[in-house]
Specification:
The chain is of the alpha+beta class and 372 residues long. The protein has helices at 3-39, 41-53, 129-143, 170-179, 213-225, 251-260, 280-290, 300-314, 343-347, and strands spanning 63-64, 68-76, 91-95, 98-100, 102-108, 113-120, 150-156, 161-162, 164-167, 192-193, 233-240, 263-269, 294-295, 317-323, 333-340, 351-354, 357-359, 370-371. It has two domains: 63-109 and 317-371, Immunoglobulin-like (Sandwich); 114-314, von Willebrand factor, type A domain (Rossmann fold, 3-Layer(aba) Sandwich). Helix content is 35%, strand content 24%. It is globular.
Length: 372
């Protein structure tokens, strides 16, 4: 073989050997880079934010529990129509009066839902319970997406009963609704009482057949919805006349637990005029303080409209995320406010609805995670 041909053959084999030797090194470098990403959630979040700045098509937000606050809101005009055309440049977010830098702004229409139907089954609801169940079933048929959304059925009287834990099974939800019935005086369904309220000296036990609305609201938020998986839009649909007779916790405590669980309350005030009627002030307050709405239907058609309005609102929200300038995590309550900065839109007097604040809890090692 000529010397030149031998030399070329040697160089060819050398390149092949070098290339094969380089493959393990490349794989090792790739694995190291992947591990760094896994161990650095802040880097992932920063990369997602940078990606959004170059594209409006962001499908999901990565939330770093240690630093980022998520805030959902809706905008409606004077005719109560949802406004879905706002941009980041049209608003600003303030926390305790201090402007915050928005990291993420999204039109949130597809985030998975976790909804608890909290249904008063005390004697005062006997005449209206059937139509409440029909409206709830229609709502479930329309809004629950299999394998994405979840709902729970929680009837309550003196205690809240978990008739159906969070599930995506529409059939299971229908069956649970069928089991819901009026407590005269005991609740006849198969659901077990939900714990979560401390007992002890000075804490009474509600009488059978009484109505403990705030107890039921508190345990539904903290023991059911807060334990649901992942980043979800959490909501309680509260069907009651608002006449609390035996709660062991105050309304303000129940509201605090709902806020901690990032749960909005939609209150539907429905009752029997032969009893004490509907306490509109109590229901309006609990809805407003959690970023929800209160409805007071006068007839069956109004009840269906209320459920339709809730459905549209849940699918017409915006999401903003920001990292608070206040880095002290001392458990204190922080007030949030969203303002319209676009002069043209301010003239339209849009109404923004959102939860008014959150509790800045101290950080723990277990909270340092990235969730979707």
């Amino acid at each position: 073989m000529p010397a030149g041909a031998k030399h070329n053959s040697y160089r060819s084999k050398r390149r092949q050997i070098d290339g094969n030797a380089a493959k393990p090194a490349f794989i090792a470098q790739f694995c190291l880079f992947f591990l760094i990403l896994i161990c650095s959630p802040e880097a992932i979040f920063q990369e997602r934010v940078r990606a959004q700045s170059s594209s409006d098509q962001v499908d999901e937000v990565v939330r770093v529990e240690t630093d980022v606050t998520n805030l959902l809101f809706t905008a409606t005009d004077k005719q109560h129509r949802f406004v879905t055309t706002l941009g980041e440049q049209d608003i600003r977010v303030l926390e305790d009066g201090e402007p915050q830098k928005i990291l993420v702004f999204q039109h949130e229409t597809d985030r998975p839902l976790s909804i608890a139907f909290l249904i008063d089954v005390s004697a005062s609801e006997e005449r209206t319970l059937t139509e409440e169940k029909v409206a709830a079933r229609s709502f479930i048929e329309t809004i629950i997406r299999v394998r994405e959304d979840q709902a729970a059925i929680i009837p309550f009287t003196d205690h809240a009963f978990l008739e159906q834990p969070l599930t995506s099974s529409v059939i299971d939800l229908y069956k649970a609704l069928d089991r819901v019935d009026v407590a005269l005086p005991s609740y006849p369904g198969s659901g077990k009482p939900i714990g979560g309220i401390a007992s002890g000296p000075g804490v009474g036990v509600p009488q059978e057949g009484s109505t403990a609305i705030w107890d039921a609201l508190m345990v539904s938020a903290s023991e059911v919805l807060a334990r649901g998986p992942g980043q979800r839009r959490r909501a309680i649909i509260l069907l009651t006349d608002g006449q609390d007779t035996s709660s062991r916790v105050k309304r303000s405590t129940a509201v605090e637990k709902a806020i901690e669980a990032e749960t909005v309350v939609y209150a539907i005030g429905i009752g029997d005029k032969h009893f004490e009627g509907v306490n509109k002030d109590e229901l309006s307050a609990v809805a407003e303080h959690t970023g929800g709405r209160a409805f007071f239907p006068k007839k069956e058609a109004d009840l269906a409209i209320a459920f339709e309005d809730i459905q549209r609102e849940l699918r017409s929200q915006y999401l903003v995320a920001y990292s608070s300038t206040n880095k002290r995590r001392n458990g204190s309550y922080r007030q949030m406010r969203i303002e319209i900065t676009n002069q043209g839109l301010r003239k339209e007097q849009l109404r923004l609805r959102y939860r008014p604040g959150y509790f800045a809890k101290p950080l723990t090692r277990s909270s340092r995670q990235v969730s979707h």
